Amino acid sequence: MRKESLVRWCWAGRWGMMGVLALCLGCSRLTNENLSRVRAGMAESEVRAILGEPAEVHSAEAFGLGAKTYVYQNGKSRVEIIFVNGKVFVTQGSFQ
């Protein structure tokens, strides 16, 4: 039983480290170069392929239009990408 517990803790530690690494790598994808690749009309999946998973996602619907905001943060940089019906409508924020 002790050996099984040790093995479980080792696996848990490995998965935890992989999660931290994934978060760190995701943050580094918010660069000026990558941000300049995001264009109006791009699909959400295209943006995620360039910038990775957003730190926050906010959704709303009004007048039959679905709107979603992806928020990316890296240090002092905060960028919001607003989608309307699944396509980039506008990119706003500050990149430092």
TrEMBL record:
Keywords: Lipoprotein, Membrane, Signal. Gene3D superfamilies: 3.30.1450.10. Pfam families: BamE. GO terms for cellular component: outer membrane. Residues 30-79 form the Outer membrane protein assembly factor BamE domain. It comes from the Bacteria. This is Outer membrane protein assembly factor BamE, lipoprotein component of the BamABCDE complex.
